[in-house]
């Protein structure tokens, strides 16, 4: 098989399988007690949300990544889902490992509640509660879903003798991998095991004798994973279904059900599951459609990873899949019984060099493990997969158990105690989620507004797909309804003429003026020569000179106190570099406010302030900037809602005009501005004024949006005194692609849920 695979495939093909993760997590309070609150309503119907649901308990969240063909994307998505959930559960936190928190007795554990559509699922859970008890149901883990790239299976089939149909051949591939996984699962338990300690409240859930290692933690010497051992959740008796063919497998399950051993196929708690195309008709679909993918169930939650599993471990599982495809099987007939024994031995004592059984012969854990890993290393080299470091890391852990998650986690429990250690980890991950609340991990290359909209959609169970990554073009699907959105605010709700109106500043002014909305008086010029003729008309008057089609404020010059002829001419020259048509307008006194209008409603108002620092009488400007830049909202390269303040030539010149420099110590309460322009891109502050601006001006903003026929619109309004509804105003611009992130995460003021308003407009919520 190795030779054939080498001949048929390049490394990139072999590393292109589809991978998805399901992770269970308990919601707990800050004292480590199981939560009794309901599953958050914001996640919608448990049955319909493809990303966030519950498992056994109402307090047990399950997050599900899509099947993705890049390991890195699966890894990032798992962390993104964690962040989404962590920020929607109030003061609660997410328990960071597989064995449960401080849990009550069985009759107090809240079973997951469902709507009528999920009533069968609720009844099934109540049956499990009676049969197995509630405490073991709260054991959580990682379920790893994998399928080979279809092209790989197709090419292997084409190179075979074709004695089987394609479906039968594909089944045989997955069945071989499944059997080998069962044989070698002990190595996953050892390398990824991270549940060596249980809480005292779980003691009666374990049949083995445990010793106390902390105030509230119990284990046995050498334990790797109680979840995969005697304390774990498993069938009342060991079951050994036939994995020779799909037909044999289905027959085995039907026999178990008919004999009353299990109530349904769902109750077969095998370490690997064959997954069907149609889960609602599972057994028939397996027979008719064949195996769609495999689900591995031996993986503990890694408490040292926010997403529950490390990137390197996902790489290792990918390599293991290829290895299990290639690895020839032994003919030893008691292999399933042997595999179960090995699993339990490693789970209970694996930190020690415990003796295992290989094809009826005794072999120690370290020797067998190194044999397998060295075979994988040779495979990696032969196929040029480039993952030697991943395998070397596993080899080091196999040789030295102190490098394993289980060993490190036990030491942590001994040091801090069971509850405190896990609460500390959980609170750290929640803080990380909050600090990154404005972004969707794994999608940082997209503009922030798109990330925010995607995050809000995923939270609510709206299926989200990227149509064109470079264009920030996504699709949002709920049931049969599909909406396409570009850059978060370009939607099907705005027509093309509306966009053209807002793009053209002259047309905008005429449309608004026709509706009685005040706009700056001015002229437009199509050439520099034409503009020069009129310069004398504007000398000494407050004016603004700007390109007709402005882009991020480029090419604009403002003269609030008027200007001489030379300065006006130079401003025209600059503006004409950015557009063939230039506008000159009266300068409206006051401050500029951005009104965000969505569907005839002002959902946010923002004022932008130039880069500045507030003195404390002790720190220099340089030190104050450094401190201000530590705010998680600030970054570089437009990946955060605000940009870090730069101390460069422009800032130095501006300070020099104030007889200051970077080493100047501002007085306590003294605000020092570092730039004249208020662009957020140059370190400016965003301040929310949504609740402070009189309704009169909100109505004017809505009227302006309606005049242009826009459903989403950014209205830039000058107000001389924002608190006075009788103050002078003028709309200087309306924008067809307003950024939502600046309103969602301002520097000062209330964070606005703008993405929800976009989803409402699209009738997706």
Low-confidence stretches: none
What's the CATH first level of the largest domain?
A: Alpha Beta
Number of domains as seen in the coordinates: 4
Total strands: the figure is 28
Shape: elongated
Looking at the structure, the CATH topology of the largest domain is: Creatine Kinase, Chain A, domain 2
Beta-strand level of the residues, as a percent range?
15-25%
What would you report as the Rg, rounded to the nearest angstrom?
Answer: 32 Å
The number of helices is 25
What is the residue-mean pLDDT, rounded to a whole number? 94
Helix content bin: 25-40%
Spatial separation of the terminal alpha carbons: 51 Å
CATH architecture of the largest domain: 2-Layer Sandwich
Helix/strand-derived category reads: alpha+beta
Q: Biggest sheet: strands, sense, closure?
A: 7 strands, antiparallel
In short:
The chain has four domains: 2-432, Creatine Kinase, Chain A, domain 2 (2-Layer Sandwich), CATH 3.30.590; 441-486, no CATH class; 521-586, 2-Layer Sandwich (Dna Ligase, domain 1), CATH 3.30.1490.20; 591-761, ATP-grasp fold, B domain (D-amino Acid Aminotransferase, Chain A, domain 1, 2-Layer Sandwich), CATH 3.30.470.
């Amino acid at each position: 098989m190795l030779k054939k695979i080498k001949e048929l495939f390049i490394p990139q093909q072999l590393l292109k399988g589809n991978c998805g993760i399901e992770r269970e997590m308990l919601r707990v309070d800050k004292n480590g007690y199981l939560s009794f609150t309901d599953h958050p309503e914001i996640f919608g119907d448990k049955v319909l949300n493809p990303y966030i649901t519950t498992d056994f308990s109402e307090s047990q969240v399950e997050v599900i990544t899509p099947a993705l063909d890049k390991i890195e994307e699966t890894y990032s998505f798992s962390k993104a889902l964690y962040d989404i959930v962590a920020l929607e559960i109030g003061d609660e936190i997410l328990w960071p490992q597989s064995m449960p928190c401080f849990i009550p007795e069985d009759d107090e554990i809240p079973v997951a509640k469902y709507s009528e559509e999920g009533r069968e699922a609720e009844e099934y859970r109540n049956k499990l509660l009676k049969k197995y008890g509630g405490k073991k149901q709260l054991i959580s883990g990682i379920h790893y879903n994998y399928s080979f790239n279809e092209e790989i299976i197709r090419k292997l089939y084409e190179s075979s003798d074709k004695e089987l149909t394609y479906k039968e051949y594909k089944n045989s591939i997955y069945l071989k991998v499944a059997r080998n996984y069962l044989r070698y699962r002990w190595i996953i338990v050892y390398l990824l095991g991270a549940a060596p300690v249980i809480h005292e409240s779980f003691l009666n859930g374990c049949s083995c004798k445990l010793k106390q290692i902390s105030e509230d933690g119990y284990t046995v010497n050498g334990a790797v994973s109680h979840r995969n051992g005697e304390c774990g959740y498993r069938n009342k008796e060991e079951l050994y279904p036939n994995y020779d063919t799909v037909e044999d497998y289905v027959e085995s399950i039907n026999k178990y059900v008919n004999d009353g051993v299990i109530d349904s196929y769902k109750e077969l708690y095998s370490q690997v599951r064959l997954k069907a195309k149609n889960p609602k008709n599972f057994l028939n679909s397996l027979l008719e459609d064949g195996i769609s993918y495999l689900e591995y169930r031996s993986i503990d939650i890694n408490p040292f990873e926010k997403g529950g599993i490390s990137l390197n471990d996902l790489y290792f599982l990918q390599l293991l899949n290829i290895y299990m495809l290639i690895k020839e099987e032994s003919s030893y007939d008691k292999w399933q019984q042997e595999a179960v024994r090995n699993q339990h031995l490693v789970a209970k004592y694996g930190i020690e060099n415990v003796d295992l059984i290989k094809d009826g012969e005794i072999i120690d854990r370290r020797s067998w493990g190194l044999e397998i890993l060295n075979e994988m290393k040779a495979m990696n080299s032969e196929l040029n997969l480039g993952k030697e470091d991943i395998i070397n890391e596993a080899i080091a852990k196999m040789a030295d158990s102190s490098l394993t998650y289980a060993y490190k986690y036990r030491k942590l429990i001994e040091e801090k105690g069971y509850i405190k250690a896990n609460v500390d980890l959980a609170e750290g991950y929640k803080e990380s989620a909050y600090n990154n609340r404005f972004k969707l991990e794994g999608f940082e290359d997209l503009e922030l507004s798109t990330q925010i909209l995607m995050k809000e959609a995923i939270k609510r169970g709206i299926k989200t797909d990227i149509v064109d990554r470079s264009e920030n073009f996504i699709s949002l699907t709920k049931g049969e309804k599909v909406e396409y959105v570009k850059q978060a605010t370009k939607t099907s709700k705005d027509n093309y003429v509306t966009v053209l109106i807002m793009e053209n500043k002259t047309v905008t002014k005429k449309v608004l003026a026709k509706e009685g909305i005040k706009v700056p008086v001015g002229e437009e010029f199509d050439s520099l020569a034409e503009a020069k003729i009129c310069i004398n008309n504007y000398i000494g008057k407050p004016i603004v000179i700007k390109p007709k089609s402005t882009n991020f404020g480029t090419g604009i010059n403002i003269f609030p106190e008027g200007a001489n002829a030379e300065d006006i001419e130079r401003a025209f020259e600059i503006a004409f570099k950015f557009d063939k048509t230039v506008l000159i307008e009266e300068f409206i006194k006051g401050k500029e406010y951005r009104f965000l209008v969505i569907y005839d409603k002002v959902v946010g108002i923002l004022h932008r302030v130039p880069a500045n620092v507030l003195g404390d009488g002790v720190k220099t400007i340089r030190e104050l900037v450094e401190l201000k830049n530590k705010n998680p909202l600030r970054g570089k390269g437009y990946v955060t809602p605000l940009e870090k303040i730069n101390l460069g030539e422009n800032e130095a010149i501006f300070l020099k005009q104030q007889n200051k420099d970077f080493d100047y110590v501002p007085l306590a309460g003294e605000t020092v501005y570092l730039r004249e322009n208020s662009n957020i891109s140059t370190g400016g502050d965003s301040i929310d004024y949504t609740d402070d601006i009189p309704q009169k001006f909100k109505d004017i903003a809505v009227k302006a949006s309606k005049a242009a026929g826009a459903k989403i619109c950014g209205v830039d309004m000058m107000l001389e005194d924002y608190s006075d509804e009788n103050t002078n105003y003028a709309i200087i611009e309306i924008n067809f692609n307003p950024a939502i992130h600046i309103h969602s995460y301002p520097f000062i003021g209330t964070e606005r849920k703008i993405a929800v308003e976009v989803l409402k407009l699209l009738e997706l919520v």
